[in-house]
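Training component of the fellowship. As part of building independent skills, the fellow (R.M.) carried out the full modelling exercise for a liganded target. The chosen ligand was calcium ion. The inputs are recorded below so that the supervisory panel can assess the work.
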Amino acid sequence: MKEKGVILFIAVLTILSSCNNDDEVSVVSAPPRSMAEVEAENDATIREYLQTHYYNYEEFENPDPDFNYKIVLDTIAGLTEDKIPLIDQVSSMTISVSSESFFLDEDETVDHTLYYVAARPGTAGSPTVADSTLVKFEGQLLSGEIFDGNSTYTWQYLPFFLRGYAAGISNFNVGEEIISNPDGTSEIVGSGIGLMFLPSGLAYFNNPPLGSGIGAYEELVFQVNTGLYIENTDYDNDGVPSMIEDLNSNGNLSDDNTDESEELSSGLGFVPNHLDVDDDQDGTLTRDEIVIDNQGNISFPDADGDGIPDYLDADS
Ligand SMILES: [Ca+2]
Ligand SMILES: [Ca+2]
Ligand SMILES: [Ca+2]
Ligand SMILES: [Ca+2]
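Fellow's submitted model of the complex:
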């Protein structure tokens, strides 16, 4: 069945490309592929890359005074054949992804593998996927082509970024403090420098941004410099740290929305708890349904004792 679909698709493409009417621009898109199938392919491609490439780990181990602490990737061949391949230096983590997060019809939940290495471990704490983090980054394809980046530190609220990017950063540590250089630039003492490899299911899958140069189902590589982070970031300032608003603890803050049915029926749209100041839409702000003591400890009263705290319980 699938092969027939592909043949039909090619036939449609051929018809369109042989149509020379410049006034009509048609866009044809194939139906999304199976997430499990794509993940298996992406993982094989990434592992092949990791086996055949290394990074400038020796420069990080014994840095020259003028070393710029940039990760450089290269192939292992000829003069470099004694280098340690990335596959022997990376760690990995498994992240379960629901096809719903890409609005796919086929209902799948697929384990994805993210590979990462800390080239220079940061000297302070480590953000969660729900924290705002001060980051410099560079995104590239496995081909080496750079598609995005920011060479100055920028605050990034990680839930707004790619699932794999946020998860990758949560493995790295940040630095201690910002210092200003005489030339007006500034740096962060002890910041972390890391590298991560994302299968497409932890990135854009079938829907990369137009004009980005990223293909559908393409693997991505990010080099990051993690400067600082805000511990227990509370993005919507409702008193509940974003990490605690991940009610099903799956590391994805977009699928926790207590008042989803009310929001959809009232036309308010979909506002997940980490962005919602009244999580249960009972008209009382979340901030007024929780208790924060002088030490900053949060407790969650449950007035009717039904096991659902008041801030998530529309009838209490
Ligand atoms: Ca919050
Ligand atoms: Ca969640
Ligand atoms: Ca909501
Ligand atoms: Ca409420």
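The panel noted the following from the submitted structure. DSSP finds five helices and twelve strands in the chain. Residues 1-31 form one domain.
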